[in-house]
Amino acid sequence: MIAQEQKPIEEILDYLKGKQKVVAMGCGGCATFYHTGDKKAVKEMAERLRKEGKEVTEIILPLGVSACEIDMSSKFLEKKRKAIENADALLMMSCGDGVQVIAEYIEKRIGVTIAVVPANDALGLVGGGPKKFKETCQMCGQCELGKTAGICPLTSCSKGLMNGPCGGVREDGKCEVDPEKDCAWVRIYERMEKMGELAKFEEMRDPHAWSRAKRPRLFEIEEPVNPVSTILSSLPAYLTLFGGPKYEEEE
Ligand code: SF4
Ligand code: SF4
């Protein structure tokens, strides 16, 4: 998921300076998980903006409806088309992906150019939970995990080194930059050793294909997912959520 936290309110108010009619829209995807775009967050934001004298229209996407999935989120935009046409700004409570997808839809499909400003700061692709998360992937475009014992050098190494450790690894195996954490490359080495794949460590590797990270990256899928049939066909699988041992998060 894309971790995110709400920007300081002063920054948000600064973006909305001189904008009287504001649409506050929350995302039902990651932003709902991180409480930066769920119903409560949108309601609180709307109240705060009303205290500033603004006229606020709320758009709340339910859990599972992500702002960036425009075929779903556009239905909620269309429901509030009039308010959007008359708005001075839309405050988007999502990651930057949602902000840009919604801005493009408003400009091209609703036909108005208004400020679409972010309420949140996106902090990276993270995993874990339910409370603590760790950045795991930088979406570099050519995954190296098959060569690095499943440990991402870009997000685990403080310097993002792809071809082995720097010269600063501490004697106790900790990182030069952050003595609190283990050196990523020591971890990779030790994990390869446990897996009996240490020989791989010495293999010459092709350079990382940074060309895969050219921006913006575009891609296409053959068939768009049908959310209704996908959810219905997975209903029995959802029952798994109600069984099994309770996951206890480590301290
Ligand atoms: S190597 Fe690239 S794609 Fe693979 S986990 Fe790391 S950043 Fe993500
Ligand atoms: S000590 Fe290890 S984790 Fe830290 S910067 Fe150097 S190679 Fe990366």
Give the strand line-up of the largest sheet: 3-2-4-5
Helix/sheet category: alpha/beta
* CATH top-level class of the largest domain: Alpha Beta
CATH level-two architecture of the largest domain: 3-Layer(aba) Sandwich
Low-pLDDT segments, ≥5 res:
none
Biggest sheet details: 4 strands, parallel
Number of domains: 2
Ions, cofactors, ligands: which are bound?
Answer: iron/sulfur cluster
Helix content: 25-40%
CATH topology of the largest domain: Rossmann fold
Please name the defining characteristics of this protein.
251 residues; alpha/beta; Rossmann fold; 2 domains; 4-stranded parallel beta sheet
Write the layout of secondary structure elements.
Elements lengths: L1 E5 L2 H7 L5 E6 L3 H4 L5 H13 L3 E6 L9 H10 L1 H6 L2 E5 L2 H15 L4 E4 L1 E9 L4 E5 L15 H4 L27 H11 L32 H7 L1 H4 L13
Entry summary:
The chain has ten helices and seven strands. It has helices spanning 9-15, 30-33, 39-51, 70-79, 81-86, 96-110, 153-156, 184-194, 227-233, 235-238, and strands at 2-6, 21-26, 55-60, 89-93, 115-118, 120-128, 133-137. The model has no long low-confidence stretch (mean pLDDT 93).
